[in-house]
Amino acid sequence: MNGPVEPFKIKMIEHVKIPSEKRRKEAIREAGFNTFLLYSDDVFIDLLTDSGTTAMSDNQWAGMMLGDEAYAGSKNFYNLEKAIQDVLGYKYVVPTHQGRGAEHLMYGHLTNPGQIVPRNMYFTTSKAHVELAGGTMLDVIIDDAHDPENENPFKGDVDFKKLQNLIDEYGPDKIAFVNVEMNVNMAGGQPVSMKNLRELREFCNDYNFKIIFDATRSSENAYFIREQEKGYENTPIIDILREMMSYSDGCIYSSKKDCMVNIGGFLATHSKDIFDYTRGMVVLFEGLHTYGGMAGRDMEAVARGLREGAEYEYLKYRINQVRYLGDLFVKVNIPIVKPIGGHAVFVNALKFLHHLSRDQWPAQTLSAAIYEDSAVRTMERGAVSKGRDKDTGENIFPPLELVRFTIPRRVYTNTHMEYIAESIARLYEKRDTIHGLKMVFEPKHLRFFQARFEKL
Q1: Within a domain: residue 3?
Q2: Quick check: is 448 catalytic?
Q3: Cα–Cα dist 357/229, whole Å
Q4: Spans in the chain with pLDDT lower than 70
Q5: CATH label of the domain that carries residue 381
Q6: Which residue of 86, 210, 290, 447 sits 20 to 30 Å from the alpha carbon of 421, by its own alpha carbon?
């Protein structure tokens, strides 16, 4: 047996095709060598993101038929609220159209101009929402996370010495809150240990700091805790999740990942104060507090998907399919981030395209080259994503310059994984012939979505 066995049957298919080599070259040039700007019809295997790209279950589709589209008091909201209370343990829930809507409400409420938000490695939209509120997001992740070869099983952990240094430098009053991401995306999908979360809660209690989780991939993080942290070997995933969330004051959640839906999000909290404020503001920016920008049918799909996404057998398959692709890469010497994370395999573009300088955008270059070779769409997670220093305007070149091969949930088979590995191995053999890029258009915010490039 080559890969993990799927714990589901396929009931419906979508036809896809491989564009010709001529069309692939035309398409990536028309897109400005930015895979976000490709037409989906020109993509054979789409690994751009796992956000909203899930194949929903028959149970979720059945729930969609039970959508209560009342403007106020939809029964689907109360089903969603109950699912979040049962699975995550939070008392209060505010629905939003997707995760960044929750970030806008939560981070905008808690951040004042001039304040600092320590986080275990930034994420693009999170950093942007803190900056829009006048704050600055600074990384306090352990050093191991910046080393692609380091195999620490919990590279997402917070470094308490770094956190203390920020407190000493800026003062406790300048800390807006402490932000922790589960399965840290920009570090390669790396989990946070329960021990670290517990100790962080004790640390923050001493300063009366709030802890807000980006719990978007918390179910996958819980799987890693069960698999790799002593004392949790046979613990139900929901029990692990509830303990994790008990160490926070609240969370933001993009339902488009671990809830296995195509749209939706929410924020949840143990704090009545946070709830009262964000519940009031959601009406201004998203919709009434019992739908928050989602249709009733979508809330029902989220409620059912949250429960399904916390099932151990599903998570075991999910994590091991990602590992299967990563192991295929390792067999042909592709440099990847280790250990293999929860939602994607991350290729080290600095090693893959060692002949390119940082200002030739190696990860962006590699992502474009992968598409041109095989019609597989990936995305850059490096300097283009990091952006510019908000004070100096200079490009920031982070230690990690990665290409993310993100696996949508329940969409592709192991044969697709093998096709991807064969294509990347073929490209690796001719890597020295790949030329870098120059940026010719740059939007003000979140440039990786819309920037355009030309070949050097």
Answers
A1: no
A2: yes
A3: 39
A4: 1
A5: 3.90.1150.10
A6: 447
